[in-house]
Design a protein that fits this description.
The protein is about 35% helix and about 20% strand. With about 220 residues, it is α+β, with helices and mostly antiparallel strands. The longest helix has 14 residues.
Length: about 220
């Protein structure tokens, strides 16, 4: 395992790049940044993952595929595996919302249940790693991927217009290409037009002041 993966709506990318980090739900609230309403917020906190950034050992997440089938543009951020060794990092043997999820905080738990090859997962989804409070882009982020070129371009224009410098530049993965799921392409391209136009309008209206407030659009 050399990489960790985090996915988010394309509409969140400017905020991630501007703040140079991915924050947990509770850390967003502590910083006074707007948090998109999430039905799972209280459940995440109850399960002990409200104050962590969720990353996966592999990019092919069932949830991402479902969201893309609905036409919602997403990004994938590829991080180094360094956070695995941080003192407060914890582990799940599958996605937190999958039945049978087990959670541990020891390296022994991770060695047996998380650092395993595809096909040896305890559940149907890749194991997860939970980084406490925040995951900084510098020096841990390697790449930020969009799916198609017409999703990369408005993000690049926005970054140039606002003068947002970043250690990672958006990269277009391309249709049906790693790291995105390859089995939802047709549904995604059929359903994304309205969602993508909404994101483009949001990007055109963004200012540095609004980015300081967080994400002000629903996915």
């Amino acid at each position: 395992m050399t990489d960790l993966w985090h996915f988010a709506p394309l509409s969140h990318a400017p905020s991630i790049l501007f703040h140079r980090a991915v924050y947990s739900i509770e850390e967003l609230e502590r910083r006074g940044l707007r948090v998109i309403d999430r039905a799972s917020r209280e459940d995440d906190i109850r399960r002990g993952v409200g104050n962590v950034v969720k990353v996966s050992t592999q990019p092919y997440w069932h949830m991402l595929s479902r969201l893309m089938r609905d036409g919602i543009p997403h990004i994938l951020v590829r991080f180094s595996a360094d956070p695995v060794l941080w003192a407060d990092t914890t582990f799940g043997d599958r996605n937190v919302w999958e039945n049978g999820w087990n959670h541990g905080d020891s390296y022994e738990f991770a060695e047996q249940r998380v650092f395993v090859r595809k096909g040896q997962y305890a559940g149907t989804s890749p194991p997860e790693i939970y980084v406490e409070r925040e995951l900084p882009l510098t020096p841990h982020a390697k790449s930020l991927y969009t799916y198609l070129r017409d999703e990369t371009e408005p993000l690049e224009r926005l970054m140039a217009r606002l003068g947002i410098g970043t250690p990672i530049r958006p990269v277009t993965a391309g249709p049906k290409a790693r790291p995105f799921p390859d089995h939802c392409h047709d549904d995604y391209t059929s359903n994304r037009a309205e969602h993508l136009e909404k994101v483009r309008r949001y990007f055109d209206s963004l200012t540095l002041q609004s980015l300081q407030r967080g994400v002000e659009i629903e996915p």
